[in-house]
Amino acid sequence: MNQPLNRSTHAEAKTPPVRLVHLGLGAFHRAHQVFLTRQAEQESANPEFGYASFTGRSAGAALELQPQDGLYTLVTRSGDGDECQVIDTLVEAQPADNVERLVELLASPEVCVVTMTITEAGYYLADGFQLDTDNETVAADIELLRQGLEGTPQAQTAAGKLLVGLAHRRAAGLSGLAVMSCDNIAANGATTRAAVLGLAREVDAELAQWIENNVTFPSSSIDRITPATTDELKNEVAEMTGYHDNSPVVTEPFFSWVIEGEFPAGRPEWERAGVEFVDDIEQFENRKLWLLNGSHSLMAYFGQLRGHTTVAEAINDEEVRARVEDLWDEAAAHLTRPELNVPEYRTALIERFTNPRIRHNLAQIAIDGATKQRMRAAAILKAERSAGRSGEAAAFSIASWIAFAQQALQQDQELKDSRADEVTEALSAENPVPAMLALLDSELAQDAEVIDAITNQLKEL
User: Fold this and answer.
1) Distance CA 295, CA 107 (A)
2) Buried (b) or exposed (e) across 14-49, using 16+ Cβ within 10 A?
3) Could you give the CA distance from residue 332 to residue 99 in angstroms, rounded to a whole number?
4) According to CATH, where is 1.10.1040.10 located in the chain?
5) Which residues contact residue 386 at a Cβ distance below 8 angstroms, ignoring those fewer than 6 apart?
């Protein structure tokens, strides 16, 4: 019988001090930031950086990991086999509503960095990096926090929770720290800054000024395919390790983390683990968003329309593969810096996509298309239109998304999108193509050639 996995049963596990805080505890965070922080330690036997990580909406991940003292098995899966490693860097797994503990940590001189994976919707920004104060959740946080930041008011947004913690850090007379987004969105540092400072200015002008002077918001580009955990994986881990793990993580061998920005309170030596620090991250962000994420979204919609369920199945379909290559050709025209190594990156992506032992479900990737396609296909299409070209391949990705959403509604299937109401309304419009484009970009929604191209592509689909 397998023994439970925790720090008493796994004698080799070390317990580092909590110096990092994360919002958005999930499988990707554990396969990426937590893993690379462990890899960056100078002395493996005496780790110096531990994570306290808080869940998003659901407390499920924290409830699974707490009995394990934060330990979990990371399974790195390649065509040659599996490699299992118990990760001991996650010291605390906390539910999202434990704002009291979050505040306590942010007011600690030991904590130097906050990282985040809360998805684009979690920043609550309108156009132009402006806080969406009309949003009900944001408005509720503003009303709550205006009553005072003392104690631990239960803010709902990530920015609201950070604001409470930063207010306590300031009150304790501590210096600032770094708040770094690890979400798949362009300019994620500027996005995070806009969300936190936007809320601070609505609540407390003096605190907003302190944040502006003392807190940094580095940008990052992150990459590692991490499928959802399944019961099958749990059983395989038990057989391979002899431990019963409630929450193992499976991932691919490849990883990438590119960072731009300053860390005023210090940070792990992530470069020891292969993390790149650059002066200008924009094209690195776009390489990831347009080549990896862009092709993922194309495969998620077009691949499912053709009956596929995984990335590996889709990329081995000659028609899907050709559409992916066309999209990459358009994107590559705007990724011109030599250090991006775009041809090698494309070759590596094909190898990753065809890994037969990483089951990356297209249905999982397809979630939240109305948000994801803004930064993926729509961004490529806008770049192509600005260059005087048609952007046909990017337009096809958008057409596939529209066709996929239409099919879901016609078949009375749940539309898994945080903007599902907006998508449903757009699809019911007299002309759904410009209505759907308006969800992605107002300029594209006014481009008659783009509308005609997508309308014709929909007929083909």
Assistant:
1) 42
2) bebebbbbbbbbbbbbbbbbbbbbbbbbeeeeebeb
3) 43
4) 282-460
5) none
The residue assigned the tokens 């990096």 is 129
We find that the CATH architecture of domain 282-460 is Orthogonal Bundle (1.10)
- Architecture of 3-277 per CATH? 3-Layer(aba) Sandwich (3.40)
Place of tokens 């592509």: 457
**Token reading at 20:** 């990092």
Main-chain dihedrals φ then ψ at residue 94, nearest 5 degrees: -115, 145
CA 225 to chain centre: 11
Q: Which helix (H) or strand (E) holds 319?
A: helix 318-332
pTM beyond cutoff 0.85: yes
Cα dihedral 303/307/309/313 (nearest 10): -70
Dist. CA 459–CA 453, nearest whole Å: 10
Which of 356, 218, 336 has the alpha carbon at shortest distance from 286?
A: 336
DSSP H or E segment with residue 75: strand 72-78
CA distances to 122, 137, 225, 243 from 371, in Å: 11, 18, 19, 39
Neighbour-count burial of 57, counting CB atoms closer than 10 A to its CB (0-12 exposed, 13-18 middle, 19+ buried): exposed
Which single residue is written with the structure tokens 């493996």?
44
**Cα-Cα end-to-end distance for the chain:** 52
Provide the residue-wise pLDDT of the chain in tens; the chain has 461 residues: 689 999 999 988 899 999 999 999 999 999 999 999 999 999 999 999 999 999 988 899 999 999 999 999 999 998 889 999 999 999 999 999 999 999 999 999 999 999 999 998 899 998 789 999 999 999 999 999 999 999 899 999 999 999 999 999 999 999 999 999 999 888 999 999 999 999 999 999 999 999 999 999 999 999 999 988 999 999 999 999 999 999 999 999 999 999 999 999 999 999 999 999 999 999 999 999 999 999 999 999 999 999 999 999 999 999 999 999 999 999 999 999 999 999 999 999 999 999 888 889 999 999 999 999 999 999 999 999 999 999 999 999 999 999 999 999 999 999 999 899 999 999 999 999 999 999 999 999 999 999 999 999 999 99
Q: Are 257 and 222 in contact (CB under 8 A)?
A: yes
Q: How far apart are CA 45 and CA 441, in angstroms?
A: 51
Burial (CB count <10 Å: 0-12, 13-18, 19+), residue 135: middle
Domain with CATH 3.40.50.720 in the chain: 3-277
